[in-house]
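Quick one, T. Sequence first:
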Amino acid sequence: MAATVCGAATSAEANMTALNCIRISDPDIQKSVSLLKQACLDSGFFYVINHGISEEFMNEVFFQSRKFFDLPLHKKMELLRNEKHRGYTPTLDETLDPENQVHGTFTGFGRKVREG
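Structure tokens:
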């Protein structure tokens, strides 16, 4: 079973979103790469299905991730991002788009962050 990558492409004129699905086994690799790039540029994400990774393993990965992010801040800071950009990055510590990125009070999404 070949993996399928799905991504949303937004049309500015119609303000609509269409879902493009790419079969990794498609012989037209250039078309697949182009569609994948477009999904990243248009919506900033893509979703992979039929990848062969078990749901149990994925659930365990999410569980471990929740455990880490539930740690107090001082514990997460022990694993602060290194020179190879691996490790923990505190919220709002990076400015990926300095001209357009807005910093401020963000509420109403995600889980409550524990202080400390």
